[in-house]
Amino acid sequence: MTALSQPEPVSCSRRAVVRTVTGWRLATRWRWGHERSSRRPRLVYLVDAAALREMRPTMAGRLDGKVALVTGSAAAEGEATVRLIKDGGGEATFVRADVTSTAEVAALVAATVKAYGRLDCAHNDAGVLGEVVPMAEYPEATWRQVIATNLTGVWLCMQQEIRQMLTQGGGAIVNTSSVLGLIGFAGLSAYTASKHGIAGLTKTTALEYASRGIRVNAVCPGAIHMMMLERAFPFGNSRPVYGAAYNQGA
Fold first, then answer.
1. C-alpha distances in angstroms, 235 versus 128, 230, 231?
2. How far is residue 69 from each of residues 15, 57, 124, 187, 246, measured CA to CA in Å?
3. SS3 annotation, the chain
4. How far apart are alpha carbons 108 and 101 in whole angstroms?
5. Over the stretch 17-61, which tens digit does the pLDDT of each residue have?
6. Cβ(219)–Cβ(125) under 8 Å?
7. Separation CA 50–CA 110 (nearest Å)
8. Residues 18, 47: contact at Cβ < 8 Å?
9. Do 192 and 180 form a contact (C-beta atoms < 8 A)?
């Protein structure tokens, strides 16, 4: 993406209107224009399919030779991922660690650097769902567990990861927030609070370390059929519908 100065307006057509945004960040082959309505003017990106294909990002080769640390919440999944990477010709090591423990997180990063010499990127993905009950009935012990794992765990991991990356001149971190880091969800007060916290923590950390070569971002996935969700919302062979539970006013 290339930042351009404000061009002369062009008329908008119905074709190829792909998104509406504010600001002047335009791709090199995109045009812009004002879409006027009874409400307010908006900036509209226009792009043809050929230009979009040319601009499509690719991951091919971008991680060659890079060292990545990925946290998760299930040892079995971690071991399976290591086997999958090795079967594909890569190198990987499984390290058991408690992300709520400062000492164990520090040991995890140290083990990574000892094994591979550096740390280029990290994905902080460990998390738990907690219980599905109304907020006033939510068990305090479960609340503390969810916040400790999902939010404090990410904070502890980033502290150790950033300290190592600063010695190398930079790096990249991705944290797993959630669509529930953007909206509310009845019955999941602790999980929703933790994921909102990750979103805010990510934004703040990104501002603090961007000038020092460290990129920090978060992803906010929606509902995925996995073991953690199956335990909380058993749906057997039926297709789950989660949208009805969203608090759209949040």
1. 19, 7, 9
2. 43, 23, 8, 32, 33
3. CEECCCCCCCCCCCCCEEEEECCCEECCCCEEEEECCCCCCEEEEECCHHHHHHHCCCCCCCCCCCCEEEECCCHHHHHHHHHHHHHCCCCCCCCCCCCCCHHHHHHHHHHHHHHHCCCCEEEECCCCCCCCCCHHHCCHHHHHHHHHHHHHHHHHHHHHHHHHHHHHCCEEEEEECCHHHCCEECCCHHHHHHHHHHHHHHHHHHHHHHHHCEEEEEECCCCCCCHHHHHHCCCCCCCCCCHHHEECCC
4. 11
5. 333 333 333 333 333 444 444 444 444 445 556 665 666 666 667
6. no
7. 46
8. yes
9. yes
- The span from the CA of 172 to the CA of 217, in Å, is 8
> At how many degrees (to 10) do helices 153-168 and 102-116 cross?
40
Instruction: Give 156's contacts (C-beta < 8 A, 6+ positions apart).
Output: 99, 100, 101, 102, 105
Whole-number Å distance between alpha carbons of 169 and 217: 18
- Asked if residue 207 has pLDDT above 90, the reply is yes
Contact indicator for 222, 179 with CB cutoff of 8 Å: yes
Q: Which residues of 177-195 are buried (b: 16+ CB within 10 A; e: fewer)?
A: bbebbebbbebbbbbbbbb
45 DSSP β-pair partners: 19, 32
The structure tokens listed for 90 are 């890569």
- pTM for the model stands at 0.69
Q: Which residues have a catalytic role annotated?
A: 191
Amino acid at 205: T
